[in-house]
Amino acid sequence: MSRRNTGLTVRAPAKINLHLGVGGVRPDGMHPLLTVYQAVSLYDDLAAAPAEAWRLGLTVDDHVAAHEVPLAGDNIVDRAADLLAAHHGLARADHGAAVHITKAIPVAGGMAGGSADAAAALVALDRLWGLETCDDDLLAIAAELGSDVPFALLGGTAVGTGRGEIVTPVADHGSWWWVLALSARGMSTPAVYRHFDELHPDASPEPPPADALLAALDSGDPARLAATLHNDLQAPAFDLRPDLADRIARGEAEGALRGLVSGSGPTCVFLCGSGEHARAVAAALRVPDPATGAEPVVLVAHGPVAGAHVVEGLAAHG
Ligand SMILES: C[C@](O)(CO)[C@H](O)COP(=O)(O)OP(=O)(O)OC[C@H]1O[C@@H](n2ccc(N)nc2=O)[C@H](O)[C@@H]1O
Ligand SMILES: Nc1ncnc2c1ncn2[C@@H]1O[C@H](COP(=O)(O)OP(=O)(O)OP(=O)(O)O)[C@@H](O)[C@H]1O
Questions:
Q1: What is the pTM of this model?
Q2: Is 211 a catalytic residue?
Q3: Which ligand gives the minimal distance to the CA of 121?
Q4: Number of neighbours of residue 77 by Cβ within 10 angstroms
Q5: 199 pLDDT exceeds 80?
Q6: From 42, 60, 76, mutation site for ligand 2 pocket: most ligand atoms within 8 A of C-beta
């Protein structure tokens, strides 16, 4: 029986930074981090099928701003394809694919949606083109694409060091429930880091540690985790977007164990004690804005979940 290559779909998760410790800016303009990532159950799917030429398409969930996703050669998925091909000495012109992203992770939301797509592209194209890239090489290519991309490959719960690209899994004995309060407008990650520099011109090169948070993860106790969540980019994000502080206060007033800005923002995440608790807090936050009448997008997710993985495909019997 022959096998026909019909393509495959790879799913990659959004992330939350449970701890985002930021050190003073490095000479290369990046910041040393000690972060603890958790992958949560909000996903982008990337389908890749054989094709002569390179094509990239996009479908988005209602809450995702499609016009903010570049499709004309400047998508992080294009860069992932270029780097993967170059790593194997392949001419890009000879390696096409019909790639389609189905996006649920908000754009510029601080949840690493672009990084998820890049990680999904590496896994999908590696399989589609039959490259069998080893894990270490995939992680190295991911690190070139962006600081959060290696974690999107790994998933679960992990410590990130360097500029975030060096990832090590950690013990996590919890199943954590989150409310995600999305924002209609995205935020620029470089702008938030620049404002961190303005607020902390003398920041130590050594980012603050996460020992208490790591112990809380090991314990599986949501109240302990809530007490140790930490984000050094939250204060600069609040300055740039004062509405976020109100949002965090609202979620906590509605009974969430703790609210936090996700990464560089603007998504606000709320830790809850159970799925039921998270659904109740989410419902309480879905109140139309009195000025505009618009209802905020508030989702429920759990973590940790797997990193980029194949959910459909590759070969069909023909
Ligand atoms: C905010 C976080 O999401 C937290 O995990 C990341 O630090 C940002 O990750 P990312 O978007 O994958 O970042 P990259 O694509 O590598 O870098 C985008 C920009 O963010 C800033 N940046 C990023 C990572 C880092 N450790 N220091 C930085 O200063 C730099 O201005 C950089 O030009
Ligand atoms: N596949 C993609 N999905 C989303 N944005 C993309 C993609 N490719 C390129 N971009 C560009 O990257 C920018 C940042 O996108 P992304 O959604 O990854 O931000 P983010 O979630 O804030 O990331 P992080 O938390 O890692 O800083 C977008 O504003 C967009 O211009």
A1: 0.96
A2: no
A3: 2
A4: 27
A5: yes
A6: 76
Q: For the domain that residue 95 is a member of, what is the CATH number? A: 3.30.230.10
**Residue 121 in this model has a pLDDT that exceeds 70:** yes
How would residue 317 be classed by pLDDT, with cut points 50, 70 and 90?
very low
Domain of residue 53, residue span: 3-170
Q: How far apart (Å, rounded) are the C-alpha atoms in residues 46 and 153?
A: 13
Residue 313 lies in a domain: no
The pLDDT tens digits of the residues spanning 82-100 come to 999 999 999 999 999 999 9
Query: Are residue 147 and residue 204 in the same domain, yes or no?
Result: no
Whole-number Å distance, alpha carbon 190 to ligand 1 midpoint, is 7
> Does residue 43 lie in a domain region?
yes
Q: What one-letter code names the amino acid at 166?
A: I
In a domain, 183, yes or no: yes
- Determine, yes or no, domain membership for 65: yes
- Closest C-alpha to ligand 1, atom 31: 190
DSSP label at residue 67:
G
Residues 12 and 142 in one domain: yes
Q: ipTM greater than 0.90, yes or no? A: yes
Closest CA to 63 of 299, 297, 301, 302: 297
Domain count across the chain: 2
Which ligand 2 atom lies nearest to the CA of residue 103?
3
Tell me how far the alpha carbon of residue 162 lies from the centroid of ligand 2, in angstroms.
20
Write the DSSP symbol of residue 207: P
Q: For residues 12 and 152, state if they share a domain.
A: yes
CB contact set of 199 (below 8 Å; sequence gap of 6+): 235, 236, 239
